[in-house]
Amino acid sequence: MTDHRVNWQEVAGLTFAPATDQLWRQTPTPFVARYQPLGVPLEFATNASVLAEMAADSFGPWGTPAPHAPALRLNFFLHTAPAAPGRPTPVFRAQDDYFMLSVGSSLGLADRARGFGMAFITPDLLADRLFVQEGFLECLGLFLTTRHRRAVLHAAGLIHNGRAVLLTGHSGAGKSTLAFACLRAGFQLLAEDVIYLDETSSPLQAWGAPWRLHLLPDGERFFPELAAWPLVTQLNGETKRRVEVNQQWPGAAVPLAPVMGVIALALGVVGVWSVWTSDDLRVTLLRRLATFAAASALLLFLLGSLEPPVLQHYGHCLDRDDVVIPDDTSNVSEAYRHADVFIFPTHEEGSPLVSYEALAWGLPCLVSPMGGGEIIRDGVEDYEYLALLSRLVDDAQKLPANQRPPQGMLSQAEELCRVPTTLSTAMNKYSKSASLLTNASASHA
Predict the structure, then answer these.
(1) By Cβ atoms counted within 10 A, which residue in 58, 64, 128, 147 is the most buried?
(2) Spatial contact of 99 and 147, defined as CB atoms under 8 Å apart
(3) 0.70 exceeded by the pTM?
């Protein structure tokens, strides 16, 4: 709301309402708005329309709180002060419930215990609006919200089937890149880099700022569409592509979701194929996969090391030209790039990273039920696998009789493609069309 009785001034093309005293204690705030970042009511007041617009851009997507809900307070002022030559180095400091930052004559302070923050911004610094928005406005505002969101994690957040999985890892581990790839595969985004947990919720709820993603320019070799997004310089000096999530994927930015699991990212790490005394699921499947590969002209690519007991007892099943066990697993992305289907049997994994990566690469997936197994819904994410199997059976039936796989193998494959009517009906509850799987199975039933 604008108060036309204010004595407006202009500096460097920016209109603002100046203070009436030298300490700026009596400063008009004709622009006032209420937001709820991370679900926490926040009242923002300022003396300049340009700062009001920034606040609406940063906090507006979270919506507005109830009219009389108690709110944190954040005041931002455009002020005139001597400017230092060049760009001074930003200084960030924190003690107990206090957070302070300064860049030359631009100052900011937040008192989390009292729920109040303020900043004084010079016209010179406002020439870099992205820095003011992210470095001052969002830093101070989100710091205040931690009065109610004390558990803060350095993690990205992805949502699938309404539930979130958190991706932890050091800077550069690939959180944003994997998040972008999963968004392309139909996931939603909870957060790019920081997660705020609601410790009072049950089940545990996580908040995030999902509106933007930042990726290094070299990501264009994997995601050509990145080239359309602008380059920005972040607070740490890195230059990245800034992607507006809801513009690239409408409705994909979701700021709140229940947490399903946590995955720690590590570059170039894959699992170990092992066997247990009570359960030899993986090695049994290895033997069957090797047989199936031979009968259907498939190349079985085993990514991961094999424990000595596996090689000792089942190595003869894998000693063949159509089974590949690479020595170098440092370039995992190449394995996904050349694969046609992803298979992951396990009875001990909670929420394996490889399943998310496979979905991000668009691979049909066949996985065991597991703690995080709901990320791949039976009959939805795996219907492409059955469609692939159907095409393999069709192609095999067209081969000359002396080149076809054994008829018993083809019959088993056809049986896999048949889906009971009860399952076909249940699949209609899912978001994707069940007709693709139903029609494919009916053609072979």
Answers:
(1) 58
(2) no
(3) no
**Residue after which a domain boundary falls, among 264, 289, 321:** 264
CA distances from 405 to 142, 294, 418 (A): 62, 8, 19
Q: Is residue 53 part of a domain?
A: yes
398 and 280 in a common domain: yes
| Residue 106 sits in the same domain as residue 225 | no
Choose one of 237, 264, 291: the last residue of a domain: 264
Angle at 376 between CA 414 and CA 329, to 5 degrees: 95
Same domain, 254 and 316: no
pLDDT 10s digit of each residue in the chain, 445 long?
445 577 899 988 999 999 988 888 889 999 999 999 999 999 999 999 999 999 999 999 999 999 889 999 999 999 988 877 777 888 999 999 999 999 999 999 999 999 999 999 999 999 999 999 999 999 999 999 999 988 888 889 999 888 888 887 777 777 888 889 889 888 999 999 999 988 788 888 999 999 999 998 888 888 889 999 999 988 878 899 999 999 999 999 999 998 876 655 543 334 444 444 334 444 454 555 555 444 444 566 666 666 676 667 666 666 766 666 666 666 666 677 667 677 776 655 656 667 767 766 666 676 766 544 455 555 554 444 555 566 677 778 888 888 787 777 777 666 655 544 444 444 333 334 445 544 544 444 3
Q: What is the CATH number of the domain that holds 306?
A: 3.40.50
- 350 and 394 both lie in a single domain: yes
Rg of the chain over Cα atoms, rounded to whole angstroms, equals 28
